[in-house]
Amino acid sequence: MNNPTRTIISRRSRPAKEPLSKDIIVKTALELLKSEGSSGLSMRKIAKALDTGPSSLYVYVTNHQELSAFVLDAGMESVVLSNEEGVSWEIRLYETLHSYLTVLMEFPGVAGLALNTIPIGPHSLALTEYILERLHEAGIHSTSAAWGLDLLMLYASSVAFEQASRAENGTTLQAISASYRSLNDKQYPMIASLQSELITSDGEERFRWGLEAILQGILQRQSKFGI
Amino acid sequence: MNNPTRTIISRRSRPAKEPLSKDIIVKTALELLKSEGSSGLSMRKIAKALDTGPSSLYVYVTNHQELSAFVLDAGMESVVLSNEEGVSWEIRLYETLHSYLTVLMEFPGVAGLALNTIPIGPHSLALTEYILERLHEAGIHSTSAAWGLDLLMLYASSVAFEQASRAENGTTLQAISASYRSLNDKQYPMIASLQSELITSDGEERFRWGLEAILQGILQRQSKFGI
DNA sequence: ACCTGAACACCGTTCAAGT
DNA sequence: ACCTGAACACCGTTCAAGT
Questions:
Q1: Residue A116, CA distances (Å) to A63, A140, A198, B65, B213 in order
Q2: How far apart are CA B61 and CA B186, in angstroms?
Q3: Disulfide bond among the record's keywords (chains A, B) (predicted)?
């Protein structure tokens, strides 16, 4: 098959422009999202990055919202489903959701999509399946498992969304603490007395705290009511 | 001072246009949000509703984001802080957060703002103070109270946001259940087996379930670690 | 079958000019 | 001090026209 006389068949001179495809559109969109934040996810910018006009994209994607759903799922590809041997379901769940959070924060804008979009792409489904497996291991079944899944993903997504959108808006912690400090402590005594606790933000520890609170809540509700 | 000869001084003929003010801008914006969804919250539409050009708004508001923050707080005015006598902190908290959820869903778009924006307006602060009071009653203090507050508000806001944005996108429950039904149950056995539970959606009951799970989680973490 | 240009109906924001 | 018009730099989407 490998005829030596045809050695220099050379890469057949590629057309100046590679043809478009859903795949490279989604990939380009994801890169733009990473480099420019959620304003990078615009039909026009994606088109420009691909050296074409916005109308060209509509051959591969029916509208901006559908593209967003694809981008979300593509982003989910890099979530690591923790699968070490001999590690408790709880730790594996935490590690995985932490990875999910990290991915969402790496691509600002994807977090918004995660709340907007029904996660039915293959990578999202893999994550969903994984979480349900861990809950099953924990003895959480049926309605508790379904609603618990929802609660856990909602938690991680909204933490990421809150974080990302405040970062994009340039909301500094200082601005928040300044506004709390200026409060009338007669009118808002609880807020005033909890000032420093409200501002504290080791994100990592806080995220874990919330996750464990939710998990314990789910477990306890289940054992109490046997739902 | 009241000279009878000047009786018919009459309401001095008002100018054809009432002067603008931050107040009526915010009120108009809130109405548009209610009637048109989150796309109603645009400088141009608000201006048109006030029969002026968009540039006029910038006298009273520095930009769209600041206006959004005002609108969010104005929306919070109608949250009912449950204050019946002899009712447990838990029920009062549930009722109040349910009212918060209802308000957020009545104004689609406000839910997004609640996640975007630091809630430092007077009505938001009143709600914050109220929740901290109830947590205090429940014996939840310090870091647990601060983080618990955050978790509860994040929960209600994100449930509303998810609901509202799916409503705006026209995502039907049927679409979701159809996509779950079409799944390969070898690849996603857990999802397949929990199909009906995943789709179930008595919003009310589900919201309450999540809220109680979170509260129990907070209470238990506190008693366990004494944070 | 795919790509393009031009157009339509929108955005937020600025700024010189008017009263 | 307030309001206006016009402009700038953006959006998503459509559609007739080209290859």
A1: 15, 27, 28, 20, 24
A2: 56
A3: no
How many other CB atoms are there within 10 angstroms of residue A10's CB atom? 7
- Percent of chain B's residues with pLDDT above 70: 89
CB proximity A188–strand D (7 Å threshold): no
Within 13 Å of residue A56, how many CA atoms lie on the same side as its CB? 16
Q: Where are the alpha helices (DSSP H) in A37-141?
A: 43-49, 64-76, 89-106, 110-116, 122-137
Asked if residue B217 lies in contact with residue B139, where contact means CB atoms within 8 angstroms, the answer is: no
Separation CA A24–CA A28 (nearest Å) = 6
Of the candidates B191, B116, B164, the one whose C-alpha atom is nearest the C-alpha of residue A125 is B191
In a domain, B35, yes or no: yes
B157 contact A CB<8A: yes
Judge contact between A133 and A83, C-beta under 8 A. no
> Of B158, B140, B146, nearest to B211 (Cα)?
B158
pLDDT digits (tens, 9 = 90+) for B96-125: 999 999 999 988 788 988 988 888 899 999
Contacts within 8 Å (CB) and 24+ apart, B11-18: B17/B51, B17/B52
d(CA A130, CA A133): 5
Q: Is A171 helix (H, G, I), strand (E, B) or coil?
A: coil
Cβ of residue A24 lies below 7 Å from strand C: no
**Which among A219, A166, A81 has a CA at the least distance from the CA of B120?**
A166
On whether both B20 and B92 belong to a single domain, the answer is no
Looking at the structure, do residues A85 and A149 belong to the same domain, yes or no? yes
When pLDDT is averaged across residues B21-48 and rounded to a whole number, the result is 94
Q: Which tens digits make up the pLDDT trace of B157-178?
A: 999 988 888 777 777 777 778 8
Are A39 and A85 part of one and the same domain?
no
Q: What is the CATH number of the domain that holds B39?
A: 1.10.10.60
Q: What is the pTM of this model?
A: 0.87
- Tell me, yes or no, whether A74 lies in a domain: no
Point out the residue nearest to D2 (C-alpha to C1'): B59
Tell me the mean pLDDT per 10 residues along chain A, length 227: 33 51 96 92 96 95 94 96 93 97 89 86 95 96 93 94 80 78 89 88 86 94 64
> Which structural domain range is residue A183 located in?
80-225
Residues in B 123-142 whose C-beta is less than 7 A from nucleic strand C are none
- Does residue A38 contact residue A106 with C-beta atoms inside 8 Å? no
Q: Is the CB of B37 under 7 A from strand D?
A: no
Q: Give the chain A residue nearest B125 (alpha carbons).
A: A188
Residue for token pair 């991680």: A156
Q: Are residues A107 and A44 in the same domain?
A: no
